[in-house]
Amino acid sequence: MNWYKSAVEYRSYDPEGIEDYDDEQGFLNEELATQGDKVFNESEIRPDSTKDIRDLALEDGTVIGATASGWSTYDETAIFAFDIAVKPEFRGKGIGTNLIERALEKFESERYMYEEMGQKTAIRLEAINVKLGESIIRNYGFKLEQKLPDRIILYKE
Fold first, then answer.
1. Distance (Å) of CA 91 to CA 67, 110, 120, 130
2. Local structure of 15: helix, strand or coil
3. Among 155, 97, 156, 96, which Cα is nearest to 126's?
4. Cα–Cα distance for residue pair 125/133, rounded to 1 Å
5. Can you list the domains of the chain with their CATH numbers?
6. Which tens digits make up the pLDDT trace of 86-124?
7. Could you give the CA distance from residue 28 to residue 15 in angstroms, rounded to a whole number?
């Protein structure tokens, strides 16, 4: 294992229950969520209104990466989507990969709520980094839904 990967701390929370969590328990607090928003802004990635900061990567208490995720419904399918942002100086160190895997785990742990109501579930991603998108297709079984000039759209049921 790369020593750097073990030095990064990962935290997550339910944004609707933020007042129930605190930093000492390893859950996200509002100050850290604000730092996560800044990482997205610096990366020029704008999560849409269906997504909230749900996971962070920290080094020495400072946010270096973030995941914004959420659910929306289209027809009879509940769609999980997420965005990942990592500060440029920390890219290529496995942080984005770890955040992707945490988001996929979140999808797997939450999908049953929709399936119990008779809905299908799926993940839909827009990757502005085409190389990363191709890696997600290879490593996580996503399918290419659409290729646009500035991004690719991926889908997985």
1. 14, 28, 34, 15
2. helix
3. 155
4. 9
5. 3-156 (3.40.630.30)
6. 999 999 899 999 999 999 999 999 999 999 999 999 999
7. 9
**Contacts with 91 (C-beta within 8 Å, 6 or more apart), sequence order:** none
pTM metric for this prediction: 0.85
Report the pLDDT value the prediction gives residue 3, as an integer from 0 to 100.
Answer: 47
Three-state DSSP at 48 gives coil
Query: Which pLDDT belongs to residue 121?
Result: 98
Using an 8 Å Cβ cutoff, are 122 and 77 in contact? Answer: yes
- The whole-number average pLDDT for the span 20-44 is 74
* CB count in 10 Å sphere of residue 150: 7
pLDDT above 70 as % of the chain? 86
| E runs forming strands in 75-150 | 77-86, 120-127, 143-148
Cα(101)–Cα(105) distance, integer angstroms: 6
